[in-house]
């Protein structure tokens, strides 16, 4: 196998259309370009991601993103070693747009085609950014997913636990919606929370009374709705400072829940006696500074190294897909023109299904 491998990656599983060029060599990984075209304004009038609108926008934008990513990298298709594409899990129309585009590029160029699990893209990001060695414990926390995974290899993950209903990112988005704030909710709720009192409202820390590291966030959303309605009934509206307090109290509940469940997942992981234990977080919610800080504190209390990707690699991007494609390709894997889009595609196929369904469909 060549010493250096350079892949184009495509991502279109939710509401970001992305293309990137990544090179991996003996000296580590290098992101040569990473283009992300968001669709926030297209979905804004509907208060959430509309799958049909997303699919059409991906189909329109993908080739432009590919062109931009190639130009930015200074490379042409003939300089590449392969095409990697998110083949699931995600919104089926968007995933299909990406897979069709990648198939066209692979057929036209003769390059190998590699289908990538979107969750593996997030879960392998610490290897892209920090060259982290296997195994490591990972909290993958995004708009559609929330799970603790031990990463053993590019396609080998064991799940220790996960959410049984909503994902935290989804809860942030719903909170924003309930409080009249724009989408995506995470960054806005975080900004509001910075000016609020996290103790103003006593929101539940769900499932802490039960053993294990499964989580639940849908009750939190209901608690927030009730608190908001009580405030509106009392004040005839939602005073600005109360909104900040609601955001801060909500974020503190998510933070505390993730921190305590991380403590339990880490204890389970440490019981396996890993040589150099490391805890990594990835996914859109990993961009939240309060949550990152809490997870870092738990790690240091438990004597475990902690790593979190830079913010632009926390949310959906194609650099993680190109990198995960290279990791798969190196194991000898390759897909053919029969590669299909998979709306559901759990990383740990042996783990029992978790309940619930998120904005990307059933939880993987
Ligand atoms: O990983 P991602 O880009 O897409 C999925 O695979 O879901 O994650 C997007 C999610 C959204 O729900 C967004 O509100 C949330 O991540 N998010 C945040 C923050 N930035 C993005 N949640 C909390 N705090 C943030 N700063
Ligand atoms: Zn994602």
Automatic annotation (TrEMBL):
Amino acids binding substrate: 140-144, 173, 186, 190, 288
Binding site for Fe cation: 118, 122, 316
Region described as Disordered: 341-364
Annotated GO MF terms: tRNA N(6)-L-threonylcarbamoyladenine synthase activity
Keywords for the protein's UniProt record, in alphabetical order: Acyltransferase, Cytoplasm, Iron, Metal-binding, Transferase, tRNA processing
Cofactor(s) needed for function: Fe(2+)
UniProt family annotation: Belongs to the KAE1 / TsaD family.
Function: Required for the formation of a threonylcarbamoyl group on adenosine at position 37 (t(6)A37) in tRNAs that read codons beginning with adenine. Is involved in the transfer of the threonylcarbamoyl moiety of threonylcarbamoyl-AMP (TC-AMP) to the N6 group of A37, together with TsaE and TsaB. TsaD likely plays a direct catalytic role in this reaction.
Protein name as catalogued: tRNA N6-adenosine threonylcarbamoyltransferase
Lineage: Bacteria, Pseudomonadati, Pseudomonadota, Alphaproteobacteria, Rhodobacterales
Gene encoding the protein: tsaD
């Amino acid at each position: 196998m060549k010493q250096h491998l350079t892949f184009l990656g495509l991502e279109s599983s939710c509401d970001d259309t992305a293309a990137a060029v990544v090179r991996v060599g003996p000296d580590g990984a290098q992101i040569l370009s990473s283009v992300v075209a968001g669709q926030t304004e297209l979905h804004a009038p509907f208060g959430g991601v509309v799958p049909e609108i997303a699919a059409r926008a991906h189909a329109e934008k993908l080739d432009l993103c590919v062109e931009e990513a190639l130009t930015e990298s200074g490379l042409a298709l003939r300089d590449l070693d392969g095409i990697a594409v998110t083949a699931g899990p995600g919104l089926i129309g968007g995933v299909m747009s990406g897979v069709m585009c990648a198939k066209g590029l692979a057929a036209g160029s003769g390059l190998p085609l590699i289908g990538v699990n979107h969750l593996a893209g997030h879960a392998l990001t610490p290897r892209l950014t920090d060259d982290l060695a296997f195994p490591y414990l990972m909290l993958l926390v995004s708009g559609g997913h929330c799970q603790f995974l031990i990463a053993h290899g590019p396609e080998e993950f064991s799940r220790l636990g996960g959410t049984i209903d909503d994902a935290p990112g989804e809860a942030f988005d719903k909170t924003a919606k309930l409080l009249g704030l724009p989408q995506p909710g995470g960054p806005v709720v975080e900004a509001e929370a910075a000016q609020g009192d996290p103790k103003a409202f006593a929101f539940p820390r769900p499932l802490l009374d039960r053993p294990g590291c499964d989580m639940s966030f849908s009750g939190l959303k209901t608690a927030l709705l009730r608190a908001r309605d009580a405030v509106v009934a009392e004040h005839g509206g939602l005073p600005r400072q109360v909104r900040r307090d609601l955001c801060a109290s909500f974020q503190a509940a998510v933070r505390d829940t993730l921190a305590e469940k991380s403590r339990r997942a880490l204890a389970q992981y440490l019981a396996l006696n890993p040589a150099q234990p490391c805890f990594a977080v990835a996914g859109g919610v990993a961009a939240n500074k309060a949550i990152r800080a809490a997870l870092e504190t738990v790690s240091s209390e438990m004597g475990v190294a902690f790593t979190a990707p830079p913010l632009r690699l926390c949310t959906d991007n194609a650099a993680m897909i190109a990198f995960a494609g290279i990791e798969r390709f190196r194991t000898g894997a390759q897909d053919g023109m029969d590669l299909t889009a998979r709306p559901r595609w759990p990383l740990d196929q042996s783990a029992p299904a978790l309940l619930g369904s998120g904005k990307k469909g059933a939880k993987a």
